[in-house]
Amino acid sequence: MSKPIRKILVANRGEIAVRIIRACKELGITTVQVYTEADAGSLAVQLADQSICIGQARSTESYLNAPFLVQAALMHKVDAVHPGYGFLSERASFAELCEHNGLIFIGPSAEVIRNMGDKAMARKLARAAGVPTTPGSEGNVADVEEAASVADTIGYPVILKASAGGGGRGMRVVWQANELRDAYNEATREAKSAFGDDAMYVEKYLTRIRHIEIQVLGDGVDVLHFGERDCSIQRRNQKLVEESPSPALTTELRARLGEAALLLCRQVGYRSAGTIEFIFDEQSGQFYFMEMNTRIQVEHPVTEMVTGVDLVKSQIRIAAGEPLGLLQQDIRMHGHAIECRINAEDPDRDFMPCPGRVTSFQAPGGPGVRVDSHLFPGYVVPPYYDSLLAKIICWGQTREEALMRMQRALEELVIEGVRTTAGFHRKLLSHEQFRLGNFHTRYVQEGFLS
Q1: Is residue 349 included in any domain, yes or no?
Q2: Rounded Cα gap, residues 56 and 37, in angstroms
Q3: Are residues 262 and 388 located together in one domain of the fold?
Q4: Which of 153, 174, 204 is the endpoint of a domain?
Q5: Residues 6 or more apart from 446 whose CB is under 8 A from it?
């Protein structure tokens, strides 16, 4: 049943908050931006129709405080809450709290968030849908002894993963049996600290793999996929560069991955924007389900550039009860897009975060260049949150044209006052194997920075 959304609380910050506000303005929807003491002068606050302070700078006292956010939503009489990515975007309890208070949560149901957020449960659901998964434990392991038993069965190396995890936290690669106990203890401690849950599962660790993800939209009845993004350029499991289409996929493999993503989404009755993440072993030609992100992704502009579909607007329309209004054959990928994440980090000092005042900012422009950012001259990058400053997305008729435009865009980019990763990206784009499309998830550590 359709329910008009006239006013949205933006329960996030930074560039994604700006992105959501812009989408709402184009839909004629009023926005209320939450902010902390550290974000009082942010671009999102400046662009929103209304704003409200929800607490002190630390995220545990503000952006992660679900009751504060719901109270802010009720005070401003909003219809819906958009969680963006990170923070509470994949917390089933937050979705339930919104629903309990008569607020539309712009995302899937709490049940789907809970099931797909539990990585071990997600693997079970994937198998039930007929989607291949990597060899490993059937579910969570009870203790280190069970983890060792699974590892002995499937063979080393293995990877320990936090069931509630994400962003590379609560993960450890174990190359041989005598390393397992220490790695297990470290992973569970990190998972408990990061997620409040130390449940672990075990998978076979595959080397020289690609990280390929499929963008999906579902309205609870129908589900569509919007092609893939290759997210293999990573450092310590953190994505740095994303592109679409993947240089590694054939037309046949692309179709199989898309269909696998749809099978899983149909299995859970998916509603909203989401991403099915796979690992792809180029040597064997096999792909395996890894996890699902039940939210909009940082790298969603890559897909928008090659398909022409506004994913954030689509999220909002679906949340309002509107049908997708598209068929799978309507989705066409045109050209090539690549995204570089520009972070406030110092690559010469092991990518150490570099908060501070931005004294000068000039975004690149020209044909095929898009910049999603919350920066402006005088903006103070706080030390409390993610270090992402801007996303530069370049489109071209071919991968080579997209890369050339990205090189130009990075040369035009000016950010002064804080150290950034722009120089790292300029070097990466000139690296021969990257330009040839020959890379994998360990390429940065082993082939580029080594």
Answers
A1: yes
A2: 5
A3: yes
A4: 204
A5: none
Report whether pLDDT(63) > 60.
Answer: yes
Q: Could you give the CA distance from residue 321 to residue 316 in angstroms, rounded to a whole number? A: 9
Structure confidence at residue 237 as a pLDDT band (50, 70, 90): confident
Task: Report the distance separating Cα 446 and Cα 450, nearest Å.
Answer: 5
Residue 450 clears pLDDT 70, i.e. is over it: no
The enclosing domain of 20 has a CATH number of 3.40.50.20
* Whether 295 is catalytic: yes
Quote the domain boundaries for residue 153: 135-204
Name the domain count of the chain.
3
Torsions phi, psi of 287, nearest 5? -125, 155
Q: What backbone phi and psi angles, to 5 degrees, belong to 377?
A: -60, 130
119 assigned to some structural domain = no
Q: Are residues 400 and 443 in the same domain?
A: yes
Domain contains 339: yes
Same domain, 279 and 379: yes
| pLDDT of 1 over the 60 cut | no
Catalytic residue among 295, 370, 405, 419: 295
pLDDT in tens, 205-236: 988 899 999 999 999 999 999 999 999 999 98
Q: For 89-120, write each residue's pLDDT tens digit.
A: 999 999 999 999 999 999 999 999 999 999 88
| CATH code, domain carrying 300 | 3.30.470.20
